[in-house]
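Minutes, project check-in
Item: structure for the 274-residue chain
Input as provided by the requester:
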Amino acid sequence: MNAGSDLNLLLSWPFREAVDEVAELLMSDLKTSREPVVKEIVRLTGIEAQDTRLVRGLATVYIFATSRCPASRGYEPLLIKRGENPLLARVKAFVAVDQGRKIADESRRCREVVTAIRFLAKPNRSRWAVNRKIALLLAASRETRVIRAIFIEAGLSDHILINLLPYAAEGGEMATERILEIARMAAPRIRIRRGPKVFAASATHELFLEKNGIRGASAYSYSESEGDFVDEATKATRLEFPGTRFGPQPASRRLKARRQLAGAPISRRGSKGV
């Protein structure tokens, strides 16, 4: 893009509408979330008027950067077909895929983290093995929120553990010993979540259905004549994750279960075509 086309984009109605929506979502997250996304990106002042301008500036930069990203293969065209603002369609597609991959990664890492903590809780482990598990936990603490989620679910605080991990990874004896104590205390209370492994395509499909609704009465549609699922959302997910064997049923079941817990309306089961 050149300067003229960039300016035209910034002044366009779709761009302003996209900025308004993203800024509103970020402000809502800032006011309601215990760990707002904005605080991880910009330093806020605590003064609402100034913070509102900072958040809007962040939304503007984000929308502009996203507009230069490659188009989404599946979700973006589907959302545009449904009448979505093209810029918002790209943002929503990008966020769904990004978050879906993170959920799948955290699902895998959850088992690794719990196993590592249980390992550290047992006595007479070699220092080499202890250091490897501490390195695993340090990486998980920096790249995901798995440790925090596991500890919160067990009614524990991860604050001390998270703070000690860098020192232990550098060979600090006192930090290592304290981590071993925390592991012995936490091991009986933490658990590996039951259920099958969640893959990126399935996690992303679930998010897409949740955030962008389900068109028609069914979460998915199966055609007996074609011997496959034919609904638009399933086709879009397969375009986003080419080369994977994706079926929509697990994602639909998880979404249905979460909506039942929340008391939200439930769509009927996937329909069958002829």
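Outcome recorded: The two ends are 48 Å apart (CA to CA).
No further action items on this chain.
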